[in-house]
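Colleagues,

Please find the record for the two-part complex below.
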Amino acid sequence: DAGVIQSPRHEVTEMGQEVTLRCKPISGHNSLFWYRQTMMRGLELLIYFNNNVPIDDSGMPEDRFSAKMPNASFSTLKIQPSEPRDSAVYFCASSLNGNTEAFFGQGTRLTVV
Amino acid sequence: QKEVEQNSGPLSVPEGAIASLNCTYSDRGSQSFFWYRQYSGKSPELIMSIYSNGDKEDGRFTAQLNKASQYVSLLIRDSQPSDSATYLCAVNLRRQGNLIFGKGTKLSVKP
C-alpha cells in the first residue's frame, strides 16, 4: 500500500481565496483524522471521521473550515475564505479503527498571503 | 488541564546515554497510547504503541504505561545522533475515540 496520500504538498494562496486539501487514506482503514500543526499550538485535531461519518468536529476553528468524506477512499478539508492565520501544515492520518495506530500522510504546507 | 501534556524540552543527552521522555494524560478511561517521532519538515512516524500497564520493549525503545498515575513514558537506550527529533505522545481518548497529541519533546543527542 502507498500509505496515506495527501495533495497538494504545498499550496500558496491569497487571502480570501478558497483552499481545498485532499486525502486518500490507507485502503481498509475506517478512521480518518485531519490535523493542523503550527509551532505555537503543536498538532491539533480538527476533525475525526469513522466509517465516513464525522464523529467529532469540535476542533474545527470556525465556520470557514469544512470537511467531507464522501466515500471510504477520499476526504477533503476546505477553507473558505482563507486567512493568513490559517498558514500551517495540515496532516491527514488514518487508522484501522479509532483505537489503533494512526499513519500520517506527508502533509500539505499551506501559506496564505 | 490539557488533555495530553509533555515537557517541551529541549532535552539534551550525550550519545550512548538513555533518553527519558514523559507524558501525562487527563482521561482516566483512555485505552491506547502511542509514541511518534517527527523530524523537522517531515510527518509524524509511529515508533511505539502500548495498550496495557507495564513495559513494552522494541529494540532500543521501551514504552512504559501506568494507567493509575495516567502516565506514559518512552526510554531510548544507547541514544544516537540520528534519534535527534521531536517525540510526540498520543492518546486515544475514551471520549469519542479521538487521537490527541501532546505538543512534543524536542530531543537532541550530542556526539
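The radius of gyration of chain A is 13 Å.

Comments are welcome before we finalize the supplementary table.
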